[in-house]
Amino acid sequence: MAKIVRLSEFQYKFSIFTINENFDSFYAQFLKTDLGKIYLSMPFSELSQAFKLKDSNKGTHCYFSPKGKIALMMLKNYYGCSDKKLIELLNGNIFMQFFCDILIPIDKPLTNFKIVSQIRMELSKGLNIRKSQEILAKNWIPYMSDLDKIFTDATCYESEVRFPTNQKLLWECVQWNYKQMEALCGMLKIKLPRTKYLDWCRRYNEYSKKRKKQSKHRTKVTRGLLKLLYKLNAELNKIENQNSFEATKKYKNQRSLIAKVYQQQSQIFKTGKSVPDRIISISKSYIRPIVRGKEVKQVEFGAKVNKIQIDGINFIEHIQYRAFNEGTRLQSTVFCAQNLTKTKVKMLGADAIYATNKNRTFTTSNNIQTDFVRKGKAGKNEEQRKILAKEIKKERSTRLEGSFGKEKEHYNLKKIKAKTQKSEMLWIFFGIHTGNALEIGRRILKQQQILAA
Q1: Quick one: which H or E segment has residue 264?
Q2: In degrees rounded to 5, what are phi and psi of residue 130?
Q3: Is there a single domain that holds both residue 202 and residue 242?
């Protein structure tokens, strides 16, 4: 039985402990962990080139290498914690440091947690999903089988955004306009125009605290906020026209965005009907409502992704922040899969929405077996076709649709908290491929154990 030692008895040993003495044993133990399996499966050097990352001799030396920057983004999705918590874990976990290609001294830990978001923004600018996935597929194909069999479906990865209502959106626009007007008047040393903003602060707070917001109250608040927003827009236009100052690009974009919001909300208020290309947030103006028709959640707000699964490994075929019919993308899905695997697709599993006449003609002409419901008279081998279609449907519903929930629950894709469209796409990319890398890493380790035996 191992002797239990108190912390006070061996605390003095930390002063003489060095990682160099036990590096090989620590590293061997690291490769056996799930983090080590991800590390084994990732072609970091090739991905660094795809992201156009390189160490620069100019300026301040970056703490993380190009390889470490990619690894840090994968850690973010693997652990699913905040940027601050991630840096705290990195300071005290030697396996995480191995993964990120760094060794942090005990007496000089990392304190700037904003480095995570800075690296995320840097990588998002160089993200090329198609090129990066080709690199990953090239390195993973030796550990994959059934390359001629694919499954496809679409899902939505939701953004972290407050539930959009017309009143909340209008109030956000009003607040932004008023703060800009205050700042401009202070800078130009002119009198602040009179508005009913302070009165509406009190009125909106009273409205927002109501547990049940009746239709008459919503209508009254919407009408008042539209009038106030019109007044603030007019006052800001007047200040801009009468005074000369250099407006930033961000300011101009936000002003035009709020003007568009006012037009849309005025039309919705007058007609009672929704408008195309509807804006739901001024902080994430790229997000659009995506009607999914589910029982629990009929509308989702985020990126819609059409995905391909090959032997349990998922790839992004198309990603967009607007609703699209995934049934029209079956041909491009097949071509994308063939480009990744360099293998002709012979079997395809897809949802009923993909079973259009155009897609049926395409799959038949290319001798691709599907799980679509037959149209017309049964053929000679109908029984065998039914059995095969049933197996394809079963595997698609369990493996592909099951992977959606796995990514959202275990790889930080349930609610994406990135601030910009590009960084959200990067977040989704690494969330999907972190799960893939772990699966490939397990296969690599299993193959090594078989060869060793």
Answers
A1: helix 249-271
A2: -60, -50
A3: yes
Contact 1/402 with Cβ under 8 angstroms? no
Given a contact cutoff of 8 angstroms between Cβ atoms, the answer to whether 50 and 58 are in contact is: no
* C-beta separation of 301 from 287 below 8 A: yes
248: Cβ contacts below 8 Å, ≥ 6 apart: none
| Domains contained in the chain, number | 3
Q: What is the pTM of this model?
A: 0.90
3-class state of residue 123 by DSSP: helix
- Alpha carbon distance 79, 89 (integer Å): 10
pLDDT tens string 384-434:
888 888 888 888 888 888 899 999 999 999 999 999 999 999 999 999 999
In 25-175 the beta strands, taken as DSSP E runs, fall at 149-158
Neighbouring C-beta atoms of residue 125, cutoff 10 Å: 11
Length of the chain: 453
Regarding beta strands 369-370 and 289-291, do their DSSP bridges make them parallel or antiparallel, or are they unpaired? unpaired
Which pair of tokens denotes residue 423? 């960084």
Instruction: Describe the crossing of helices 66-79 and 34-41 by its angle, rounded to 10 degrees.
Output: 140
CB neighbourhood size of 221 (10 A): 21
Q: How far apart are CA 23 and CA 12, in angstroms?
A: 21
Is there a domain that residue 253 lies in?
A: yes
Task: Identify the domain containing residue 254 by its residue range.
Answer: 166-271
Distance, C-alpha 236 to centroid of its chain = 36
pLDDT tens per residue across span 133-178: 999 999 999 999 999 999 999 999 999 988 889 999 999 999 999 9
Place of tokens 């985020």: 302
Nearest 5 degrees, angle CA 438-CA 443-CA 449?
125
CA distance 9 to 95: 26
> Which of 386, 384, 403, 212 has the alpha carbon at shortest distance from 309?
403
413 plus 309 within the same structural domain: yes
Structure tokens, 323: 């609703």
